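Notebook entry, structure prediction.
Reason for the run: the old model in the group folder had no record of what sequence produced it. Starting over properly, with the input documented here first.
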Amino acid sequence: MTEQAGKVIELEMRISVIEKSFDELSDMVTKQWQMIDQLKLKIGTLENQLEGKQDRSEGTADEPPPPHY
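New structure, fully documented this time:
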């Protein structure tokens, strides 16, 4: 094998490793975006629940306390 052919093979091997790393990182980023989207939905749900509770508590502020207080 010539020196030039050996260098080509080495470069091909390096490219193969880089492609594998790129694919793995791409998969990780995709999973992270999916998790971010899920977390955004959960945060939105929690915000809505909190707003609903605040609205209900604001409405009861004008009411007198129950007799057992």
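Summary: The chain is about 85% helix and 0% strand.
The old model has been moved to the deprecated folder.
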